Amino acid sequence: MADILQNVMDHAVAVARKAGEVRHPYKDPRWFIGEESVAAGEPSILTDDPTWIIDPIDGTTNFVHAFPFVAISIGFTINKRVEVGVVYSCLEDKMFTARRGGGAFCNGEPLQVSDQTDVHRSIIATEFGSNRDPEVVDKIFSSLRNILSLPVHGVRGAGTAAVNLSLVASGCVEAYYEMGMHVWDIAAGSLLVLEAGGIVMDVDGGDADLMSRRILAANNRSVALRLVEQIAPYRPDRDDAPPAACD
Ligand SMILES: O=P([O-])([O-])O[C@@H]1[C@@H](O)[C@H](O)[C@@H](O)[C@H](O)[C@@H]1O
Ligand SMILES: [Mg+2]
Ligand SMILES: [Mg+2]
C-alpha cells in the first residue's frame, strides 16, 4: 500500500518535471480536489494535471451514528483519467487498491466482479442522498420502485459511495447507481470496479463523467443497461459548475 502511494507520488513528480513544472505536486492546492478543501472555497476543476481527489471520511452520517461503514477514498488522475484508486473501509479493515491496467485488490487479494448476467438475480446498491427537494425525492423513489418491481433479489445501500463501489468490485452486489454524490466519493472506487472487470457509465447509459455527480457502476453491460431502463435520471449541479453569482 505504502509502495503504491509512493510510486504514484514519484510518478506525479516525474510528470510535473517533464512538463517543466517547478511546483511540488503534493503541496500545490491546484493539484487537489478534496471534499474539505472545496468546502473551504478551493476550486473543484479537474484538469489534465496530476490531481489527488480525496474524501477523508466517506459515510459521514454513518460515522456520526456509529453505523459501521466508513471509508477513506483517495483517487489520483492524470489527463482527467483515474490512474490509482485507494479505498480504506475503516471498520471492516479492508484496504482496496487499484492501478490502471494492474487489477484491483482487497488486502492484497485480487478482486473480480460478479459473473451474474441476469438482473433478476442481482443485488443493486444505491443511496437516497441528502437532497430533499420533492422532485428529486420523487425521481429517487420512481427509480427504486422500477428496480424493485423488475424484480431484483434486493436493494442495499452502505451509506458510503466508496464502499458501495468496493462491493461491486468484490462481487457482493452486481451494481451501484447514484445521482448527487461528488467526484471525491467515486474517483477511487470507480477504478476498483473497472479493474475488477466491471463497467462504469452515466445513469442514462452514456459515457461516465467524473464531475457530473451521476454514476452507474456494474459487473457487466447487460445488468447496467437493464438498470438504465429503470432509472429516472435528474441532473444535479456539476462539481465543476461555476459558483452562483452573488447579488
Ligand atoms: O458526505 P460523505 O459522507 O463524504 O459522502 C456521502 C456519500 O458517500 C453517500 O453515498 C452519498 O449518498 C452522500 O450524498 C454523500 O456524498
Ligand atoms: Mg463522501
Ligand atoms: Mg466525506
UniProtKB/TrEMBL annotation:
GO cellular component, one term: cytoplasm
Cofactors named for this entry: Mg(2+)
Predominant subcellular localization, coarse grouping: cytoplasm
Compartment list: Cytoplasm
CDD domains xrefs: IMPase
Pathway entry: Polyol metabolism; myo-inositol biosynthesis; myo-inositol from D-glucose 6-phosphate: step 2/2
Keywords: Cytoplasm, Hydrolase, Lithium, Magnesium, Metal-binding
InterPro entries in the cross-refs: IMPase, Inositol_monoP_metal-BS, Inositol_monoPase_Li-sen, Inositol_monophosphatase-like, Inositol_monophosphatase_CS
Enzyme Commission designation: 3.1.3.25
Pfam families: Inositol_P
Residues binding Mg(2+): E35, D55, I57, D58, D185
Superkingdom to which the source organism belongs: Eukaryota
Catalyses which reaction(s): alpha-D-galactose 1-phosphate + H2O = D-galactose + phosphate; 1D-myo-inositol 4-phosphate + H2O = myo-inositol + phosphate; D-glucose 6-phosphate + H2O = D-glucose + phosphate; 1D-myo-inositol 1-phosphate + H2O = myo-inositol + phosphate
Family the entry assigns: Belongs to the inositol monophosphatase superfamily.
Subunit structure: Homodimer.
Protein name as catalogued: Inositol-1-monophosphatase
Origin species: Xiphophorus maculatus
Record lineage: Eukaryota, Metazoa, Chordata, Craniata, Vertebrata
